[in-house]
């Protein structure tokens, strides 16, 4: 069992299955949503993801059909979900445990912030691959 939570602890979750490969997203939307250079994410099957407490879980439709879920108290991004999909996109910064996954790539580097360099051995893709 892998657990995660928001900064203030009001939103908690458990993952009973595997966490997919890790992707670092550099798109402008992720940068703005996280206030960071990029967002590290991984897929989790919806059936394996269980919210343990969600009394302050908020939702924002950041693009048509894509919803971002976050703590309304501390603003920690928890996950995103697109309509019609069976998985969630877990925001790895909210994990309390080791995801036991491997890094796969950097995506949306065409929108990467100009103030840092990628010096990574990982593949880089201009958009989502």
From TrEMBL:
It holds the Pfam family GFA. One of its GO terms (molecular function) is metal ion binding. The keyword NAD does not apply. Keywords: Lyase, Metal-binding, Zinc. It comes from the Bacteria. Residues 2-117 form the CENP-V/GFA domain. Belongs to the Gfa family. PANTHER family: CENP-V_GFA DOMAIN-CONTAINING PROTEIN-RELATED, GFA DOMAIN-CONTAINING PROTEIN. This is GFA family protein.
């Amino acid at each position: 069992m892998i657990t995660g939570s928001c900064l203030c602890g009001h939103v908690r979750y458990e993952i009973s299955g595997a966490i997919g490969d890790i992707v670092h997203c550099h798109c402008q939307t992720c940068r703005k949503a996280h206030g960071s250079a990029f967002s590290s994410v991984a897929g989790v099957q919806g059936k394996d993801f269980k919210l343990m407490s969600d009394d302050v879980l908020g939702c924002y439709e950041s693009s048509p059909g894509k919803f971002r879920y976050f703590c309304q108290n501390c603003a920690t991004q928890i996950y995103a979900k697109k309509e019609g999909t069976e998985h969630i996109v877990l925001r790895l910064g909210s994990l309390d445990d080791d995801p036991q996954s491997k890094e796969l790539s950097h995506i949306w580097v065409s929108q990467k912030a100009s103030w840092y360099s990628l010096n990574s051995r990982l593949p880089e893709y201009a958009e989502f691959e």
